[in-house]
Amino acid sequence: MMKRVDELLDSRLMARLDTLDVVSRKVFMGKVQGERRSRRRGQSVEFADFRPYVPGDDLRFVDWNIYGRLDRLFLKLFLEEEDLSLLFAIDCSTSMDAGTPRKFDFVRRLAMSLGYIGLVNQSRVGCFAFGGDRVERLTGLRGRRRVRELGEWLLSRESGGAFDFSKAMRTMALGGQGRGVLVVLSDFMLADGADAGLRAIAGRGFDVFAIQCLAPEEVEPASVLTGDVRLIDSELGTPVEVSMTSRVIEAYAERLRQHTEALRDASVRRGVTFMQVRTDMPMDDLLLTYLRRRGLLK
Fold it and tell me: What would the CATH number be for the domain defined by 5-23+84-293?
């Protein structure tokens, strides 16, 4: 069990993450000046374009050089820097206890790494943890000095209970901090599917990334299970007797493929970027290569 913040994010990886930033594919309206370039025209230092003057415009932004040449008034337009919210939704249900490495530990490490990237780039960072009927949240973080606070909060979360995904996402949508990037970290082992939950958060100003985190044993059960075994649903507690024959393993692989495709299709319909990663994937490779290639980081 992890007890220290440096177990979530060590100094070696932290130094490598200092060069990264979170990417938003959408244009958001920030409440305070931040470090994201927006297509909204404002009063920052980067010139963008001109437009004709209309009565009531601020004369400080008139280009007098153009007026001297054309005898017409034009206003300078600038690219305005905007603020970005970076939010996480972490699955704390009982199923996240499974796996080696444990899925719950993996998603906390990933949330810590992404949260660190957001904080050092002056994004507003918030985190929601869902498990059973509880919703726990930490919001309003900004700046490198809040890194330890995020880490200690993640370490204090516990897994356990069933996970009502659609209810959790509705809560997330209602309690979100403005607009920004929302990263959902879960195994997405949902009996009712993910469509209703994704619908609750799509189209609400969030640029949504759904990352399905699976343990190696879930992807390749034959590596750990052989012969006759008794499996127990971690959340419902119902047992099932299974003989791990090649036919059963093939059927399981097909069901997992269908489940993943259904998640991917639901994500595409809602404008959500869906990814599947294994918990044994090195965090360096995940952050510095895979998530950059998929457009979450740059």
Answer: 3.40.50.410
| Sequence ranges of the domains in the chain | 5-23+84-293, 36-82
Helix (H) or strand (E) holding 269: helix 246-269
pLDDT in tens, 131-148: 877 889 999 899 999 999
Tokens of 122: 């002056």
Report the predicted TM-score, pTM, of the whole model to 2 decimal places.
Answer: 0.82
Euclidean distance between CA atoms 239 and 225, whole angstroms = 16
Our measurement of the distance from residue 248's CA atom to the centroid of its chain's CA atoms, rounded to an integer in Å, reads 34
| Listed residue (8, 186, 4) closest to 113, CA to CA | 8
The DSSP secondary structure of 162-224, one letter per residue, reads: -B-HHHHHHHHHHT--SSEEEEEEE----TT-SHHHHHHHTTSSEEEEEEEEE-HHHH-GGGT
Residue 64: phi and psi, rounded to 5, are -75, -20
For strand 85-91 and strand 180-186, is the pairing parallel, antiparallel, or unpaired?
parallel
